[in-house]
Fold this protein.
Amino acid sequence: MIPVLFTCAGQRVDIVSAFRRAGAYTVAVDANPLAPAVYHADEHVIVPRIDDPGYLASLQDLVRRHEVRLIVPLADLDHLLLAERRTELDGALVLLPAPEVVRRTEDKYEAHVFFEEQGIPSPPSWLPDEVPVEPPYPVLVKPRRGFGSRHIYRAADREELDFYLRRTPVESFVQQVCAGEEFSIDVFCDFEGRCLAAIPRTMIESKGGESIKGMSIMDDALIEFGRQVAETLPIWGPANVQCFRVAPDRHEVTDVNPRFGGGFPLPLAAGGRYPELALALARGERPEPRLGDFRPGVVMTRFFSELCLTGDEGEYEPFAEELPEPLVGEPGGA
């Protein structure tokens, strides 16, 4: 069993459980003792906040104690820290791109500029003091950095645009609204930057920036677009590519997150085998690309679940009464 350390585990029960089913020994950490995902790992530890000087030291201790071979960050919060200091983690493979790629994808405006320079279509975007006198309304005021679709405002005219630019509490840029259909492409690359898998899915419904309903689709143009975006950056490990089809032969990328996407259960159920690919990289193997090798037409619809705990002062243990067996197994389960 390969020991895998998950950072910023939060609510990502789906990912921790999938790696556990794939044969990993899972260690999950979070600063919040009420983070549910940590209690679904083989072992969990409550660690300092990411801005605490002791955060990296706590990870180093866990890597040594458990002989961790793979580190999987589950949220954007510690990406740059881990990418920059990956050599200080006793040889554990950090499932993140190079620091310059992390910086580029964290800054959504800089990512737009990069894609345009590389010939990859991206919606027209401007810094606040560079917006044309009459941009193609409607436009969005979007944060340059952030997640969860926070601080995004739609402006139908100059009056609304100026209002939101004055009121937004974060550094922002302006982007033309895409008129076509939105898709997400879950990609996975090796550390040579080769795209090993790309699974497109529809965005039937999302909440708080996270997909809660969608369907896997076999679309050669989207698979190729995801591969092109991933290999151009380049991505190492997982990423979620968000784009719009604005014309039959044109896709525009709006966002790339170098981590497993919020809709992870869907590509997993469609046969993506992303945990197995990650564990293969940790073993030093070189998997071959398997683009298009997945099941289309798998529909995901998400729901709330819960975990009850007992304890006090941050020392909690899962508490479970006798419950009926679930009607269906988790995606990817036996």
Summary: Residues 2 and 24 are 5 Å apart (CA to CA). The mean pLDDT is 94. The domain at 2-95 is CATH 3.40.50.20 (Rossmann fold). The two ends are 18 Å apart (CA to CA).
